[in-house]
C-alpha cells in the first residue's frame, strides 16, 4: 500500500502558521513580481478566484471582500516543506518526496489499521508544523493520488481516504463522479481527447482497454489505466537523483534595457546556481544563457536568444561560470529591446571529484585557492543572508530585482525576522 | 616506441608555458595522531536545546512580563525562546499561545476546569480565558538563550 500525503493550500497554510489572526481570512499568495495568484485559501476558492488569475484583475473583489494577499516567501515555504518531509519520513522507511508539498510513503508491512495510521500522520504533521495535510491510501501511486483527491474534496473522509475501506459499489459510484482530468498524469489535452471518445470519468478510464490506450495514446497513459485497476507500474523513487541540470531564471521587476543590467541579473543567477551546484558536489561541463523580451506584449519587438557554451574543464567556480555567462551574454545582447526575463542553466553536470583536467591548458588560477574562496562566499551568504557577498558584476540590481510588495518576514530562516512574543 | 596520437588536440590562442605539476598530495611523514580513533563530534548547542528539529521554532521575547524573582524561571526581555510544537502543553509549562490572533508567552495554568495564562512578573495580571475567547497553544517553551551584551 502507498500513501500520498499533501499539505492543504500549502503556501497559504505556511503564512497562517505564523499569523494566527489570518485563520479564517480570505488569503491569496502571489507569484514572483506579484503577477498572479498561485495559492488560495478555501475562502478565496469559494469566491471563485482561479489559480493563475492576474492580480490586477482582482482589485474589485479585493475591496469588496477584504482579501489579504502575500508576495511569495520561498525561504519560508522551503523550510516548512523540509520540516513536513522530515516528519513524514518518520512514518515510513520508503519515502518519495514528490513536490514541495507532497510525499509518497510506502506502507507495506505497516501493522494495524492504515486509516488510523493516516490519521496519526495527519495529527502529527499538524501539531509539529502547524500545517494541515490530507492522506490518500491506495495500492498504486495513481490510486493513492486519487484517494488523496477524495480526502481533500469530500469532508466525509475526515482528511484520510483509504480506498480499500470503501465498499466496492460505493467506490465504483465515486469513480464515476470524478472527472478524468483529475487523474494523476492526465493533462488537459489528453482529457479533452478522452472525452471525445466518451471517456469522461475515472471509472470510464479504469474500464478502458489498456492495450488500445497504449496504441491510441501512449504507454504512459496505459500505465495510468493499469494503475487505476490496482496493477502497480510506477515505482517509488526513494533516492532523489542528483540534478542533471541546475536552472536559475527570473522575470524582472520592470523591463531592462542595458547590457549592464542584464549582466548584473545573470551574475546573480549564476551565483545562486553555482551555490546549488557546489552543495550537491557537482561541476558543470557547460552552461546555457538566455534573455528574452515579454511575449505578452505583442506590440513590442520580440527577441529571445539562447546560447549554450561548453567549458574547457567542468567547474563549480562562481567566478569562472560568471565569466562564461557574461561572455555568452555579449554574443547575444542587442540594444533596443525591452528585456523581461533572463536565466542561466548549468548543464552536463558531473561529480566534482572526478572532473577530467585538461592536459594542455594550464589552470589560470590555483584551483585550491579558488575552491576556498567559493567556500567563503557560500559560508558568508548562509550566515548573513543570500547575496550578502557577491561579485561586483551583480551590483547593478535596481531595475531587475523582483517586485515583492508584501512579502512576510522570513520567520524561520533569518534571525532578525524571528517572530516576537510579549 | 612512439605513442600514437588519437584525435585533434585543441588549439590554444596564447599557449601558456607547459609546467608539469608535482604531485599535489600532502604526505604525512610524522606519527599518526593517537587521538584519531577517539575523535567525537564537538558539543553542539543545537543538540543541547533541540530534541525535534522539525518541530522546533524560535521566538524573540519583548517586554518584561516573564521576568521573575526566581532566577531559574526568569525570562529576560530579548531572550531567544526555543519552542517545541510537538509537546502537549500541561499545567505549569511555559507556552507560546495565540490569543485573539496575537502571540504571547506565559505560564499555562490549567486546574479545576480553569484555564489561564500567568505572567511570571506579578505586575501583569493573569489572563483568564473567558467563554468567548479561544486559547490555542502554539508550542511549549523548552528553553531560552541570551547572548551577553558587549
Automatic annotation (TrEMBL), chain A:
Family: Belongs to the DNA polymerase type-Y family.
Domain UmuC: 2-187
Transmembrane segments: none
Protein name according to UniProt: Protein UmuC
Record PANTHER family: DNA REPAIR POLYMERASE UMUC / TRANSFERASE FAMILY MEMBER, PROTEIN UMUC
PROSITE patterns assigned: UMUC
Organism: Jeongeupia chitinilytica
Entry keywords, A to Z: DNA damage, DNA repair, SOS mutagenesis, SOS response
UniProt xrefs under NCBIfam families: PRK03609.1
Pfam family, one: DUF4113
From TrEMBL, chain B:
Keywords attached to this entry: Autocatalytic cleavage, DNA damage, DNA repair, Hydrolase, SOS response
Top-level taxon in the UniProt lineage: Bacteria
CDD domains xref list: S24_LexA-like
InterPro entries: LexA-like, LexA/Signal_pep-like_sf, LexA_repressor, Peptidase_S24_LexA, Peptidase_S24_S26A/B/C
Domain Peptidase S24/S26A/S26B/S26C: 26-141
Record family assignment: Belongs to the peptidase S24 family.
Protein name: Peptidase S24/S26A/S26B/S26C domain-containing protein
Amino acid at each position: 500500500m502507498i500513501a500520498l500525503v499533501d499539505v492543504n493550500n500549502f503556501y497559504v497554510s505556511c503564512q497562517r502558521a505564523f499569523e494566527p489572526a489570518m485563520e479564517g481570512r480570505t488569503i491569496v499568495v502571489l507569484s514572483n513580481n506579484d503577477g498572479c495568484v498561485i495559492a488560495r485559501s478555501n475562502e478565496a476558492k469559494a469566491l471563485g478566484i482561479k489559480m493563475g488569475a492576474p492580480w490586477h484583475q482582482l482589485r474589485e473583489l479585493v475591496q469588496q471582500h477584504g482579501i489579504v494577499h502575500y508576495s511569495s516567501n520561498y525561504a519560508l515555504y522551503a523550510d516548512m516543506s523540509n520540516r513536513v518531509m522530515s516528519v513524514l519520513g518518520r512514518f515510513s522507511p520508503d519515502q518519495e518526496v514528490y513536490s514541495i508539498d507532497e510525499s509518497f510513503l510506502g506502507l507495506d508491512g505497516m501493522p494495524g489499521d492504515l486509516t488510523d495510521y493516516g490519521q496519526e500522520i495527519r495529527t502529527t504533521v499538524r501539531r509539529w508544523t502547524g500545517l494541515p495535510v490530507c492522506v490518500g491510501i491506495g495500492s498504486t501511486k495513481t490510486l493513492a493520488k486519487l484517494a488523496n483527491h477524495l480526502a481533500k474534496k469530500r469532508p466525509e473522509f475526515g482528511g484520510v481516504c483509504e480506498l480499500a475501506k470503501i465498499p466496492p459499489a460505493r467506490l465504483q459510484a465515486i469513480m464515476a463522479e470524478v472527472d478524468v482530468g483529475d487523474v494523476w498524469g492526465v493533462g488537459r489535452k489528453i482529457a479533452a481527447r478522452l472525452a471525445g471518445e466518451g471517456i469522461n470519468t475515472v471509472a470510464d478510464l479504469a474500464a478502458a482497454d489498456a492495450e488500445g490506450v497504449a496504441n491510441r495514446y501512449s504507454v504512459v497513459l496505459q500505465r495510468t489505466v493499469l494503475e487505476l485497476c490496482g496493477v502497480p507500474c510506477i515505482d517509488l523513487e526513494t533516492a532523489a537523483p542528483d540534478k542533471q541540470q541546475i536552472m536559475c531564471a527570473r522575470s524582472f521587476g520592470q523591463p531592462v534595457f542595458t547590457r549592464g543590467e542584464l549582466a548584473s541579473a545573470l551574475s546573480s543567477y549564476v551565483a545562486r546556481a553555482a551555490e546549488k551546484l557546489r552543495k550537491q558536489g557537482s561541476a558543470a561541463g557547460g552552461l546555457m544563457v538566455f534573455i528574452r523580451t515579454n511575449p505578452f506584449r505583442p506590440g513590442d519587438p520580440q527577441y529571445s536568444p539562447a546560447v549554450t557554451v561548453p567549458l574547457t574543464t567542468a567547474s563549480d567556480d562562481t567566478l569562472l561560470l560568471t565569466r562564461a555567462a557574461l561572455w555568452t551574454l555579449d554574443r547575444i545582447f542587442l540594444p533596443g529591446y525591452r528585456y523581461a526575463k533572463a536565466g542561466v542553466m548549468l548543464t552536463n553536470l558531473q561529480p566534482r571529484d572526478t572532473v577530467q583536467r585538461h592536459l594542455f591548458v594550464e589552470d589560470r588560477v590555483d584551483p585550491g585557492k579558488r575552491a576556498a574562496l567559493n567556500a567563503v562566499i557560500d559560508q558568508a551568504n548562509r550566515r548573513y543572508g543570500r547575496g550578502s557577498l557577491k561579485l561586483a558584476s551583480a551590483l547593478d540590481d535596481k531595475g531587475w530585482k523582483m517586485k515583492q510588495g508584501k512579502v512576510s518576514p522570513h520567520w524561520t530562516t533569518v534571525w532578525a525576522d524571528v517572530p516576537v512574543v510579549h | 616506441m612512439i605513442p600514437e596520437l588519437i584525435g585533434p588536440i585543441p588549439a590554444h590562442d596564447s599557449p601558456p608555458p607547459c609546467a608539469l605539476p608535482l604531485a599535489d598530495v600532502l604526505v604525512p611523514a610524522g606519527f599518526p595522531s593517537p587521538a584519531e580513533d577517539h575523535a567525537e563530534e564537538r558539543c553542539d548547542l543545537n543538540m543541547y536545546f533541540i530534541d525535534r528539529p522539525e518541530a522546533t521554532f524560535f521566538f524573540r521575547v519583548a517586554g518584561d512580563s516573564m521576568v521573575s524573582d526566581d532566577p531559574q524561571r526568569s525570562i529576560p526581555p530579548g531572550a531567544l525562546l526555543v519552542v517545541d510544537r510537538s509537546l502537549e502543553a500541561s499545567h505549569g509549562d511555559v507556552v507560546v499561545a495565540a490569543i485573539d490572533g496575537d502571540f504571547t508567552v506565559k505560564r499555562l495554568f490549567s486546574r479545576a476546569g480553569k484555564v489561564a495564562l500567568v505572567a511570571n512578573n506579578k505586575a501583569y495580571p493573569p489572563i483568564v480565558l473567558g467563554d468567548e475567547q479561544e486559547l490555542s497553544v502554539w508550542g511549549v517553551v523548552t528553553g531560552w538563550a541570551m547572548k551577553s551584551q558587549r
